[in-house]
Each structure stands twice: as C-alpha cells, then as structure tokens.
Design a protein that fits this description.
Helix content is about 30%, strand content about 25%. It contains 16 helices and 21 strands. The strands form four sheets. It has a six-stranded antiparallel sheet with strand order 3-2-1-6-5-4. Strands 7-16-15-12-13 form a five-stranded antiparallel sheet, with helices on one face. Strand 20 and strand 21 form a beta hairpin. The chain is elongated, with a radius of gyration of 35 Å. The chain starts with 5 loop residues before the first helix and ends with a helix.
Length: about 625
C-alpha cells in the first residue's frame, strides 16, 4: 500500500490516479538490474502522467558499486517543504529517513524525459551547467551547495521550488518550467541520487499530495537502483576474480606465438571453471595447459584457481606431463573434502563433484620441436600443418581429474615449423543444439590457413562456431610453432676428466662472441666452469654442455648421475661448497631436473640493458667469504 497520507491524497479521483501511478511504478520499475534502465523506467512512469519534464542524477560512486560516502547529519531544524505540514507543529516525529548521504560529490545524469517540445537540455560542451543541474544524459556535474537540489541531497527530504518567486533559482529545464520537486533517492539509509520532477507553465502546480507521491515514486525506484548497484558491485568483484585467475593478455613463450580467448558461459557473472595457462620451463621449454572444472559460477572459478595454482607448482618441478596429471589428480581429490566428510553426507559432501575437472597438459621443446601431451578426460588438441587440413591429435583420453584409480599416459609428437596447435574447452564445440562431433568438424573447418595471423585465426574460430549459446564457458589457446634455429643452439660432449673444465670455458667464450653477446662472457665462463666441475665431482659418465640463446642465454650441463645437487651454506672455514651459491648469486635463475638418463643442471642469464653495469664475478667471490 502507499505511504501517502489520506489527508494529503485529496479527492477520490486524485486518490485513484495516485494509486494507479503507484501500481504502474510497481509493475514497470525494477525489471532489470541495470542502473540506467531503472532510471528510465521511473521517468517512463512519471512523464507525462505526473510531470512534464524529469531527470535522474546518481552519484558517481553508485556506478562503481560503492556506497556514497556518509556524512554527519546536519544540525539545526529540518527544513520544511512549502505546503507540507511541519511535523513539529503536529507533535509527532517524522517517519522518513534522518538526514543522511553526502553533498558536493560529482553526479552523473542517467535519464531525461520531457513531454514539452521546446524544453532545452544543456550539453556538456557548453560549459558549466546552470544552477538547476541542467545537463545532457551521460554528463557529470555538481550542485551548488546552497541550492535546493543540494539541500534535498543533504537532508534527504523533498524540496519544492516555484521558479517565478523572488530569490528562487533558475528553472532547470528552461523558462517554460514553473515549479520543480527535488526528490532525493534514499535506500537503506543512503542517498543514491536525485530526481527532478518539473511542470511547465499552464500545468497545475505541485500540491501537497504531489510532494508525497513524488517521494513514494523516488523511494520505490531507489530500492531498485540500490539492488542494481549491489549487483554491479558483485559482478565487478566476480570479474576481477576471474581476470586474476587467468594469464593477463597473450603470454609469451620461446618457440611459440600464442593467442588466447576466454568467453564466459553466463555474461551476467562472467566467471566459470575454464582456464588456460602458459608456463615457462627450464631450457626454453614451455608447458601449455587448458582445463575445465565441472560446474559454473564462483565455486567453479575458485576450484579452477586452486587447480591452476597446483598445475603451475607441479610444472615448475619439471615432472613429466603424465606425472603432473597424476599429482594434480591427487590435488583435485583433496579439494573435494576428506573421505570421511563425503561418506558422512554432510552439508559439504557434494563438493567433490565440483572439483572434477578435465585437463590437457603439454610440454613443448623448441630445440627438437617435439611436444609431449598428457590428457585427463579432455577433448583432443587440433593441429594444422602448412598445406594440410586440420586434424585431431590421437592423444590418450584418460579419466577426469578427481576420479583417481587410473594412471595417465603421454604421447610425443613432432611439430613442423609454422604448424598451428589449438587447445580448447568443450564449450567451444558442444551445446544443446550442436553435438560434439559436429562442433569438432566445424572447428577443423574454421582452421584452414596455417599462415593466418594468430589473432585473426582466433577471431575466425569464434565467429564460425556457435559461441553465444550461454551454456558453458569457452577457453581457446592457439599456438604457432617456430622452433629454435640451429644457429641459436650450441652443444658439445666432453669427457669426464679435469681438462674438460677449461675446454668448457673456451667453448662458451667463443660461442658467446659468435652470437654477439660477449658482454656475458666473464659471468658465463665462471658459471659454466662451476657446473662442469660440479658434474665431475658429483656426477657420473660423460658430460654434455649446451647453450641456448633466445630472449635469454641458457646453459645446461648434463651427466648420467641421478643425485640432484643441493645448495648449502658453506662455513667460513670450508674450502669448498660455494659453487652453487655463486651460481645463484650471478645468474638470473638456476635449477636442476631429472632426465631419462640422469640429470641436468642449468642456469639462465639475461642480456644486460644498455648502460647497466656488468656483474663483477670477482666481487661475487669475495662476498661469499
């Protein structure tokens, strides 16, 4: 029911018109969770049924989903609306909100409506808006502190202005306007904005019942605007969460040009469980992964973030792809809760289903141009070689992560230069209207030219396939293969004898001079010497030295020993034990990994920027003692 006092309602016809207007407001306002749409719906109800011209202004904070900053209530007596009874003379307390909100903040005009043809609207490029806040939709402005519009915002009470009176502010919408109601939009104790209702000359002036009716209309719209604000805030938070869980932009990798796309299944939330990642590994190798957590919404996005973090952690241990998926399967089962909780059927016993996920994980070596794939229930990658039709790689399917009980297999594929590799989630090729077989055929048909720019190829795929079904998220990763050329790879085999240390230094110095990065020579020589010496003392068999140059210089020393080097802190009295400390001090990064025939110890050096000093190996040695 309406809050309009019966004594303010007037004649029965006026009461019926007021109730009809309020019924229309209840039916038409708030049908969407969009701020601008809600404001227009309010004006569609008010113009011309209630007034001739109207506008809605909202605080800028509202558009960011934030609450307007509160200020202390104004002191002194509350202003009395002309024609409205003073509550103090009636011996009762006011029922409307106490003075809340803020004044002086920037406001944006979100809606304007007029039933008068010659009413002017101030354009933003015409300078400051006049005192009444006359501005075009989308523009921003502030109200003068002592204007009735600012008073309405400050006190959260309706202010009525008759513009023909002496001392009254100019009419906000032109000379034809005779009176205006400045009505604050108040919801949950916060002033969100202001509605201006104006009547032109020749129309009936606003009366007491109109003041009460305007407040009721604004209050109903304010609740809907606040709901839209809260929805926008949650939407933005969900979007920030999703963006933080995915790699920013198109990741870079040695030997691969990469283009990525992510489309949410539900545009309202823009979050889901699909993800992709590109992880740099030692030796200029790259791990690429695409996965899909079963489920939708924030819970799926959180599960995706946990699995993506686990994938990155496992990848950096340099395990084989099948081993990575095996360990990730254990992680996924752990995310679903303890077995006891699942058997107990408690409130969270269904979480294990959310953490079921499919995933394809691949490691690409740009030197050999070979890519090793492991699959956990995911759709197969697509490969387009120059001059050939696109095909689906026959990768062992495996079981989804979180199921457990089955080992994962891997397969190695040699990729030619210029080939296009595509990894994707099932939302790209499957929907209610598109069986997965038809979607896979359409995907292969959309990839026809291996030389097409990657960004254009990614757009072509999305434009060709049905990606607007809104049933599932879509992740797409396209990678073009460009192997590391033989002129960027140097490799030698050295016998397991002491003179191999000096031989390794000479080879490294000569090769760096050939590549034109002699500025790295002193540091690289010292570190190569340390790794070869370490292999002689603690490794087994012949030694293999390899240098790789791309964005950074990578040095790898291979031997057949299985024992991994361990960095320890040498005491001042120790004669040795500082080799790996020196490697860690002078290199950009270093580490070791197991190989089928032993181990590899590596370090990485970044070329010096112009003007930057070269590291001093002598000083580094002194710092260790």
């Amino acid at each position: 029911m309406s809050d309009i006092p019966l004594e303010a309602a007037g004649k029965p016809d006026d009461v019926r018109r007021a109730l009809a207007l309020l019924n229309a407001a209840g039916a038409r306002i708030g049908n969407s969770l969009d701020l601008e749409t809600t404001a227009r719906e309010l004006l569609d109800v008010a113009v011309p049924q209630f007034c001739d011209v109207a506008a809605v202004d909202l605080y800028q904070d509202v558009f960011a989903g934030e609450e307007p900053r509160p200020v202390r209530p104004t002191s002194g007596p509350r202003p009395v609306i002309p024609g409205q009874p003073d509550p103090r003379t009636r011996g009762e307390l006011p029922t409307r909100e106490r003075p809340v909100g803020m004044v002086g903040g920037e406001m944006r005009r979100v809606a304007f409506a007029s039933a008068v043809s010659d009413v002017g609207v101030h354009r933003a490029d015409q300078g400051e808006p006049p005192a009444g806040g006359q501005a075009e939709v989308g523009s921003t402005h502030c109200y003068a502190c002592h204007s009735p519009f600012a008073t309405a915002l400050r006190t959260a009470r309706v202010q009525q202005v008759v513009h023909d009176r002496d001392g009254a502010p100019p009419a906000p919408f032109g000379a034809r306007v005779q009176c205006t109601l400045a009505v604050p939009m108040v919801a949950r104790g916060r002033v969100l904005g202001l509605v201006q209702f104006s009547r032109a000359k020749g129309s009936e002036p606003f009366g007491e019942r109109d003041v009460a009716l305007s407040a009721e209309l604004a209050a109903r719209a304010a609740v809907c605007v606040d709901n839209a604000r809260l929805y926008r805030r949650e939407h933005q938070r969900a979007l920030i969460l999703q963006q933080s869980l995915l790699p920013p932009g198109n990741p870079e990798a040695v030997g691969l040009d990469i283009a990525c796309r992510y489309l949410p299944g539900n545009p309202a939330t823009e979050v889901g469980g699909d993800w992709f990642d590109v992880i740099e590994l030692p030796g200029h190798r790259t791990a690429i992964v695409v996965g899909d957590v079963m489920g939708r919404g924030l819970r799926a996005a959180v599960a995706m973030g946990e699995l993506r973090t686990a994938v990155r952690t496992l990848a950096l241990t340099d395990m084989e792809p099948a081993e990575v998926l095996g360990a990730l399967d254990e992680v996924a089962r752990g995310l679903g809760g303890s077995p006891r909780a699942q058997r107990g059927g408690g409130a969270h016993s269904d979480l294990s289903e959310i953490y079921l996920a499919t995933c394809v994980y691949a490691v690409y070596d740009p030197v050999s141009r070979r890519c090793t794939f492991a699959n956990a229930g995911h759709l197969p990658p697509v490969l387009l070689e120059p001059g050939e039709p696109a095909l689906l790689l026959e990768v062992p399917k495996g079981v989804p992560l979180g199921v457990g009980g089955e080992p994962f297999e891997e397969i190695e594929v040699e990729l030619p230069d210029g080939a296009l590799l595509g990894l994707y989630t099932d939302g790209l090729v499957e929907s209610r209207d598109t069986p997965v077989d038809e979607g896979l055929d359409a995907l292969r048909g959309s990839l026809t030219d291996a030389t097409e720019p990657l960004e254009s190829a990614a757009d072509r795929v999305l434009n060709t396939l049905n990606v607007h079904h809104g049933e599932d998220d879509i992740a797409l990763l396209l990678a073009r293969v460009r192997g590391l050329g033989p002129d960027r790879v140097a490799e030698w085999r050295l016998p397991a004898e002491a003179r191999s240390v000096s031989r390794a230094r000479d080879l490294a110095r000569e090769q760096l001079a050939t590549w034109g990065v002699a500025d790295l020579g002193d540091t690289a020589e010292l570190l190569v010497s340390e790794l070869v010496t370490n292999a002689l003392r603690h490794g087994e068999g012949a030694i293999q030295l390899r240098l790789l140059l791309d964005r950074t210089l990578v040095c790898e020393v291979w031997d057949t020993g299985m024992a991994q080097p361990r960095r320890r802190r040498a005491r001042h009295t120790d004669e040795g034990g500082r080799g790996l400390q020196l490697v860690g001090l002078l290199s950009t990064a270093w580490g070791s990994r197991r190989t089928p025939g032993g181990k590899t110890v590596w370090f990485e050096l970044a070329p010096r920027a112009a003007g930057s000093p070269e590291p001093d190996p002598t000083q580094a040695l002194l710092d260790l003692f």
